[in-house]
Structures are given as C-alpha cells and as structure tokens.
C-alpha cells in the first residue's frame, strides 16, 4: 500500500482513520437486568426503570430512550417524576437521593444528574431516623415529602434539596395526636406510604407500618383525621374524588375508609378477596373511575398462602369481570395509563414490571389482551445460546418474514403502544438488518435490528421435528371454567427447556435464497426453506458418522434426539425439509451454508462433513479426532464430572503444599527476602517494554485439538493459478487447516450427478494455535463476496486474474499465504503486541463519513482482553484499537457478533445486548427530544399559601428550564408571562430573572 509521509501535522492515513473509524457504545437492546423500581410521568408520557446495578433508564415513544448511571454502586429502590416537569428523583438503597433532568442540548435531550442529597439527623440519632422508606413528589413540583424508618416525615425543597425544618412532621408530633383508644399508639413504626389528596394539594395521607393512617394538613401543620387500621399496612390509595382512602394490608385484606371531619372508627368496607384461609399481603392497591359504570380496582398479591403462595399475581376487577393475572416472575411495580385530557379519563392500559419482563395489558378491549412491546422485549425468554447477524436484507425476504411473524401475533391487542412521550429524531435506518438469536428451547428468534428498537419479527421452533416431553396441547392461557382464583397466564418468560439437547448452537441464513440452516447441542443440523403457506411434510434424516468406524472410542455423552417419522405440520415461515444427524451427537461447533451450490458444511469436536441438501446426500466426512483425546468422547455432561475430579485433586495438592510450606517456612524466610530484593533491583534497571506473552508450541496431545472452529466456502485457486475451483476450508482447535477441492456438476445435471470432493491442501500452524477464521482475498486484495451476492448486483465480481491470498486467523496471529502454492507471505502477531488472544474475527466494510463513494474492507477482531482491533486488508496492519468489554466478562466476549458494516452486539447481561459501532458512517443510537410540559388553564389551578400569596404551580420550573436550556422564543414568552403572574418570586427566581 502507498505510504504517506508526515509534514508537521497529521498524515493522510491518520485523517482517513478519522473518517472511517470511531468507537461508540450506542444503545442497549433488551430488558434491563435486575430491575428494582418503576415510575411513570403522565405529563411527559415517559416510563422510568431503575435497576439493582444503579442504572436509570427512560423510555417513551419507540426510539425515545435515555440512560443514566449513578456513581454509587447501589440499587435504585424508588423513582419519582416531579409532576409536569422534566425532572425525576431516584432513591438508592444507600439512602441517597438524586435529582435528574432531561436537558436540551443542540436540539436533543440528554439525561443528566444535577444534584444529590442525603438526610442528616440530629447528632447521636440512630440511622433509622433518616432512613427513607417513602417518597412523595408534591404536585407543586417544588416539594419532596420523605417518610423514614423512624416514623418522621421530612419536607425538602427541590431542586436545591433544601430541608424545610419548620415544616417537618416528627413522630412525637404525630403520636401526641393519636386517639387514646388506638392500640400501640406510640409504636407507629416506619412510614409505609405517602399520598396527596387529588382535590386538595394541601392535604396528604401518611400511612404507618403498624396500620395507622393519618390525613395531615401541610398548611395548618396538624392532623385532620385518623384512620385506625389494626393490620400491618402495605399501601394506601386516595380515590380521585377525594372522598375515600383505600388501605391494603399484610393479611391479604383491603379496606375502604370515608374521608371527612373527625376520626374514623369503622371502615366502610373490608374485604379479603381470596380468604378465608390465610393470604399473602396485598402490596399495592389502585382504584380508578370510569366514564360510566363502576371503577377499576387493581391490586398485587393477596393470594392464598398455602395453595398459591408462589404465584405472582395482579388482580383486576371491573364490574362483573374478575381476573387474576398470573405473571412469570416477581412483580416489581405497576401503574395504569388513562385516556383523556390530563390523563384523567378511562383506564386504557395496565403496565406491569416484573423481574424478567414488562407486560402491558389493554384494558379497553374485551378479554384484556396483551399489547406487543416495541422495546424492553425479554430476549432471554429462553436463554440465548448463539447469535447471527445479517445486514442489508432484500425487501422481498423482509416482507415474507414479517408476514409469517404477523400470523404468530394474532393474540395480541390491536391497540397502539400507549407510551408515546418524546420525539424520535433519529434518521430512518439506511438498510434492513436482522439479528437472529438461538435459544436453549430450540427456538430461533428474528429481530429487526435496523434501528434503536430491537423489534421481534418472527419465531421459529425446531422442537416439532423431534419427540420431546413437551405437550403440544399445553396452552399457557387456558384456565378451567369457574376456577378460583380466576388465573390467567400472561408474559412470555419461560427459562425452562423441555430438553437441553434442543439448544441452538449455530445459525446461518442466506438472505438471497431464503435458505436457513440451524445446528444444535445434540449434533443435529436442520436445513429449512422459507414458505408462505403452511405445509405438512416428512423431514428426511441422514445420519453421518464422524468417527468413520474408529475402534476403541465410546461416546459417554447425551444421546441424540428422537426424530418424528410421521409428517410434520409447519406453519408459514421457515420449514424444515432435511436433517443431518452427527454421530457421536456432540455439539455442532461450526456451520456454513452455500445456497448457490446447495451445500452445507458442519463441524463438531470429532470432525467435519459436507452435505448436499439438494440431493440429500453426504458428500464427504473427515475425522479430526486425536486418538489420545478422551475428553472429546465424554460430552458436556461427563465433562462436568471430570472438572469436579480435577478440582478435588487441585485442592488436595494445595493442602499438601501448605503442610510442606509450614515445615520449611522458617528456613526459607531469609532466602525469600533475598530473592525479592534481587528481583526488585532487576526490575528497577529494566526499561518498561510492551507486555508480551511467550508463544509456546502446543502439544498435539492437548484436549479438543480436533474440534472444528471455522468453515469457509470459496471459489479460488487450489490446483494451479489458471483454473479456479469451488473449495471448502476448515480450521481446527489444533492449528490445522484443511482445504478440499469440490467438483460441482453442470446446472442441467445438478440434481442427478453427485458432488465430489478431494483433499487438496493441509496446513499445520507452527504453534498449533486454534484457527478462529479463514478469509480468501481476490486479486485486488478484497474478500470474496457472499454466495449469490454478485448475481443480485450487490457486489462486484471478484478479480480472478490476480493472485489470490489466504488469510488464516489464529488465536495468536494473522498470517497471509499465497495461493495456490500456499507459501507464507506476511503475518501480524497479536501476542507480541499485548499478550492477547483472538476470540472473534469478521470482515467489515467501513465507509467514509465525508465521501459517499469511498470505503475500505477491514478485519474486525475481539480479544480475550475485551479489546477491539481493526486490521487492514490485504496488508494486515493494525489500524485502530479500542477497549470495549471488561476482560472479566467472559460470557460477554463469547457472545459478541459483528455486522458487515462495522457494528457489533454482545450480551452485557442474560437479557441485554450492548450495541457498538466502529464505523463513522453506520451508527444506530437514540436521538430524542423531550419538551417541557406547558401547563394549561385547567391544570394551572391556584392554591392559597399560608402567607396569603397566590402561587401558580410549575411557573418557576418552566421558566428555569427555558432560560438555562435556551428553548424556543415561544416558550421564553410563556415563561415571561409566568414570571409576571407570580406575585412574589419563588426560591431561586431572582437569579433567573437577572439571567433573563
């Protein structure tokens, strides 16, 4: 390649790097790991989820996403939006409060932390005095009420987090007002619940753990009413008309209390919905009115303890309809979205956050069906076992997959997604991309990975081809008529696999022909074809013996799956027509498909083979098993036993060495000190050099040397430089590369004459490092195109006049050989640079962000250190290097998959993909704007303050946000009017007036 000199500034090559490469972690797809808190802002129409790792995530309309991370390594226990504002408050389990805002910057919003606060009690006070247990964001937008474990209620002004000591409600102050006949009046326990009167913001209800509920006047600073419940309190709810308070309790009961003058002695209604036997607590209760007819009553928990104590349920009661929604995991929280102005109309959707998924129920459609979520989909509904990305899907294939998927979604509600906050300003995706995930239950799920939202498109199940323990008539949503409680299963999280052998290990989709091949844990390889109509057909099976009759070996692992001999009914979509079953039934470790040649190649720890799926015949089989490799005969189940055995031996050796060390400790102490001193002196004299790992030749007796790591089809030169021929290349764990020359019949005779193969080359790498990738470069140094890519005019024909090169990617180095002689030309040793090993490699195209016509191909590499490298082709020079994944995150590194345009995905948790980009041109990231809610005349109701001043809620907050974030002139004008309307400046307003 032409070299460019430096002339006192950046070279041309450095400038080109800036145009091509730029590393960004762009968006997280999937469901947040270990969610711990939920909140919703009706004015912003945004959903917030906090997690145990300290993350806070906001979601609005599809594509509107924000994420923040607390500096503290603490779980988020509560999230509260400030009413009618763009701020929210989070409470962590270290008792710290944090203020966040959605700040507008250059036309886009960003989530920023703008303050933090921790309550401090009087000197010598126990921590329980200030340990926050309940938070109420007052409708004025300027106050937080903080209930504590010690029974106190602190009032704090926001956003400055200034404690208003004169307005605090102490436990002694409250206890002195409790009626004498209330049992245990001075043992009120912690503040369990705080809620504002919907019709009078000067009144709040305070619920104590012991059961006492008190209505408190914030202006008069006195108790207006006591509600002496005797059961342990779980939650309270003030009805919208302000006339009733509902309280739920630990014994599975809930009570309805009349709000009025004087203390309440008896409740209007007490009910244990699932009694008379002992029931679990009702942790939350909500009652919402409807336009006409009875209200909705919703509560979580309350199930009979002995019979259904393990169920996670939310009960919905409306008129004569009573349903116990049975969820797949523990309920974190729920809320209800309502229609109409100010979101005060008919309940439209129930949003439930459980530990493993988000479920949204349509409350306006008969039967209350589930609404399909456009994001937060539980990718791990069955554990992810592999991934496969396909870029630039043709429109016809996309439409056919979408149509097949829509037939699977008939049970979902037709209502649109109800959370619609913010504006998605991201440009439309330039192409259609698919992400395919294989799962432990034998399913392959197709995801629209074109944009910010990872949308589910279609699900393929392979279990129907085999006999399993699953009952095909089992319906999760079916319930017995008249059953009590009236359960209804909801949610799709199901981590239990009927048979672990069904697990998908490798996937390969040809986007041009519609052929798909998937391989599993028990050596099964299915070939499928896309069909728009349902079909019933027999799947033809071929058993392939990879040991080729070698004696002395006995497979100790799992047995192969039993295939159905009768015809299999397949719905529209991908339908299996051929099965290849490897013997022994070991995990398939490599798979590739060539749809133009109608061939599929597969490999396991015992060897590899080539199958002609047009004629349904095995072309050839190659055994790569080392005779001394006993572990390859045991399989994963037996391997667990051997690991336990080796661990026991290791612990015995450690114990023996400790005994001997004690005996010689005194004698060796002086020698050890001397050796350490000598070593320190030598290190001080040494110059710091790059970290290197000594490359040692690996023994051929190492375990799993025959394991096939990669397979590659290519039309290249193997016999001589004048005649190109189809070929198959295979790389093993022992550093061996096999090349087979293939002879394909003419198109007219392709269905009749057999495909033949002949081994042409065998390369043994010097250090026997595992081969993780093989690429062949044409005469211009460009990687060969994919099958059928040239035929569809999506790639240039490869150069067949110049010399082809073979690039072998091992764990330790990249080595280029000339073809057909297979002589070494150049290499790049990764281990000599930083001691890393290659874990993933793929070819990507990098387009310039300044020139539409310019692009380069490069090799994208992920190492065991979690670092990303881009290596130039064909001269294998290191271009850029970025840290990406923590080296301790072994599962994240193992799950990484690259795209053809410089992006990638890896699992940051069992349920979330992190998406990243190495390209300046192809970046998929949220670009969203959330505007400040402008209060209307109906919402801007005045409230009288103690000093007789009329205050307009939210005026200062709207003004502050507009002035500090330079919003539109229209909004600034509204702020100016709001300032004039206030008869006195509020906290912080003078400074803002000066700014204005």
Please supply descriptive tags for the structure shown above.
cytoplasm, 5-stranded mixed sheet, 63 strands, 12% helix, 996 residues, disordered N terminus, mainly beta, WD40/YVTN_repeat-like_dom_sf, elongated, LLGL scribble cell polarity complex component 2, disordered C terminus, repeat, Methylamine Dehydrogenase, Chain H, GTPase activator activity
Distance between the termini: 59 Å
Oligomer: single chain
Helix count equals 10
Give me the count of strands: 63
Strand arrangement, largest sheet? Answer: 22-23-24-25-34
Strand content: 35-45%
Helix percentage? 10-25%
Main sheet characteristics: 5 strands, mixed
**Rg from Cα:** 33 Å
Unreliable stretches: 1-9, 471-478, 637-645, 655-667, 679-694, 936-996
Q: Based on CA inertia axes, which overall geometry fits?
A: elongated
Question: What is the average of the pLDDT values?
Answer: 85
Structural class: mainly beta
Protein name: LLGL scribble cell polarity complex component 2
Pfam families: LLGL, WD40
GO molecular function, one term: myosin II binding
Subcellular location: Cytoplasm
